[in-house]
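[agent] plan:
  1. take the single chain provided in the ticket
  2. run structure prediction with default settings
  3. attach structure tokens to the ticket
  4. add a short note for the reviewer (M.T.)
[agent] executing step 1
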Amino acid sequence: MWAMIVKEFRQLRRDRRTLAMLIVLPILLLIVFGYAASFDVKRISATVVGPQAQRVAASLPAPFTVDSVEPSAGRADAVTALRDGRTPVAFVTTDSDVTVLLDGSELFIANAAKAALARTGQQPATQAARARMEVLFNPDLTTSAVMVPGLAGMILLFVGTVITSLGARERQAGTLEQLAVMPLRPRDVFLGKIAPYFLVASIDLIVVVTVGVTLFGVPFRGSGLVLALGALLFLFVTLGIGVLISSVSQNQGQAIQLAIMTLLPQIMLSGLIFPLSSMAAGVRWIGYLLPLTYFTKISRGVMLRGAPIGSLWQPFLYLALLGAIVVVAATLRFRRQLAPSPAPAHPGAQPADVRAAAR
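[agent] step 2 finished; step 3 output follows
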């Protein structure tokens, strides 16, 4: 028995990827659930417009934080700001009343704003005769309306990262060497690997959006072409990550481990489940590095708010840059793998990797 215990410890020590996962994953879960898993919104950005904008802005209670004061703007400008995602809350003032506009696509922020306004009697020290509240884009504040666009991104992430990463079976089965002797460029190998999964993921996206709209009543107010373009960029990123994982993994077990380590932070820290504004500053920046964060912004912006592509240029640009980086990295990795191995020095010699495996 002691010999078996020693053998397993030695094997675990040699399997550095598994050892890293056993150490890193618990730390990651601790950070996520300790600092990010919170539905409490402690800061709400707001825009104030209209003739009484200065006075209302100066009297807003916590947790509202005024980011913009525009006395010359009106309701139409406030609605545009909410539609484009520039602010989740807008106070529209007139000479006699105040209208509070809430972005219903930001579910947790809208609920927090409603609760804060209820505590202050919906009278933000303006001494106005009336104060009304309107929820735009998701008037009933239903959870399904904000979850379905995010779930579409999560499904694309699963297909692109986890399923594609299982391409490590080629290395495990020894067929990667067959690719090396074929007249294929690294770019051809990369595109050939992602093409089937790209088709499957596209079908999944259509099914999820169709079911969400027809069965759950999720609105689709924007352009399907804008959503398709965002999905295209996001798929290139996720498929590239999956292919990159498969290229650095020795077997399917290692590929699944690495895929989980990339999948979990995106689900927990992208704003899909927990709002980014409720996360600690030290963890929030991780969410800004994840591709699912930006596809969620695109899908919710297009489906719920009808946001045009011009207002979504930042997430589009980030996905394009990240996709280019991942594709180049995966292509270079395949170029290295498909490079011909040096011939043995003499008939009895063996390649270094064979000698290492024998040891």
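[agent] step 4 note for reviewer: Residues 124-129, 352-359 have pLDDT under 50 and may be disordered.
[agent] ticket updated
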